[in-house]
Predict the 3D structure of the following.
Amino acid sequence: MELPKYALFRGRIVPYGEARLGVLTHALNYGTGCFAGLRGYWSDEEKELFVFRPRDHFKRFLDSARLLAMELPETIDGLLGHLQDLLRAEGLKSDCYIRPLAFYADETIGVRLHDLTPAVSMVAFPFGKYFDNDDGAHVTVSSWKRIDDNMIPARGKIAGSYVNSALARSDAQRAGFDDAITLNKDGHIAEGSVANLFMVRNGSVVTPPITDDILEGITRATFMTLLQEEMGITTVERSIDRTELPLAEEAFLAGTGAQIVPITRVDHRPIGGGRPGRLTLALRDLYFEVVRGKKAKYRSWCQPVYAAAAAGAPAPA
Ligand SMILES: Cc1ncc(COP(=O)(O)O)c(C=O)c1O
């Protein structure tokens, strides 16, 4: 992976190499941080970089920080300003990924969330696919359970909780699968290792509810809106049993990194004949038009980086 040229670090844009931390940093030792993951999409037609739903990502970022009892001196507007400054400094003219991080920065020993000082960083770098195989994934139901909201807040993007995803994803990939599906404490399907899950079963589009230990995904919300507004389909939010998945007509993963990945097999059983479903493919086409700013109706989700700079706008609306 190509390293970024710059980082937002302790309130300033600095060369990436200057954004350094000591090995005693609390968040590095105890996982006491939270992060966000945004994508920027380059539009060749408009010669513009569009960041997708940054307000919603920053809202969840600040919510995740609150779950860690962090008092961040940041607002959504302030973070949007940092994002613009960083992207303009980086000068990216390609699809990219943006990683804001809030972390307890104290170099100290002692497990706790209080009497610590948080810091914020942000970097951006060119990025393509997250899933090597995003045309038809073969997934396995993991023996690792999804973290339970009473263990680590499941609805937040808490750094330490990603050990759970990493265990599930690596075991799955080393066994030859593309990704892992985790079950929650009740044995219901939670999500993929880095994405939410949807299935089409008996003609209904179904996704687990936000009370089933899932991350409250922004892509999940995007697809629910697009399904409703563009296809007249109301997504059913209900718990999903593991044995429903191989019986589904279609299934897909949805996440900022993953984007939309059709699931075509689960534990060697084909889903919907083992090929991406019609609805999944239609949604995929629609999604890529939306994120590149081609759909006027959803243009407000796409934050332009360079036009705003040319117009002298200090920070996006
Ligand atoms: C565990 C997990 N679930 C779901 C998602 C999807 O969330 P979003 O659509 O907000 O990127 C992600 C992605 O970041 C994730 O890491």
Q: What stands out?
A: The longest strand covers residues 96-104. The chain has a mean pLDDT of 96.
